[in-house]
Amino acid sequence: MTKVKTFTMPIKVFETVRELETLDEQVNAFIGGTGARRIVAASDTCTTDATGATIGIIRVVTYEEA
Questions:
Q1: Is residue 25 classed as helix, strand or coil in its secondary structure?
Q2: Residue 30 region, left (φ>0) first, then alpha (ψ -120 to 50), else beta?
Q3: Cβ distance 29 to 5 under 8 Å?
Q4: Against a cut of 0.85, is the pTM above it?
Q5: Alpha-carbon distance 25 to 31, whole Å?
Q6: DSSP-assigned beta bridge partners for residue 44
Q7: Number of Cβ within a 10 Å radius of residue 61
Q8: Stretch 42-57: mean pLDDT, rounded?
Q9: Domain coordinates in residue numbering, the chain
């Protein structure tokens, strides 16, 4: 069965590298904990505020269960 899981992370100025590493850790822990058989797709997109500044990131992972 194919499933989709969404992760979000707020982004602050000058802390992006640490926040992306944290997001990667969350995704990897989820994948390891679900026993996913295969990752079908992964996609990132940024969210912005009214001025167009990036304020967050959304990562969507599509996977097949074992």
A1: helix
A2: alpha
A3: no
A4: no
A5: 10
A6: 59
A7: 19
A8: 94
A9: 2-65
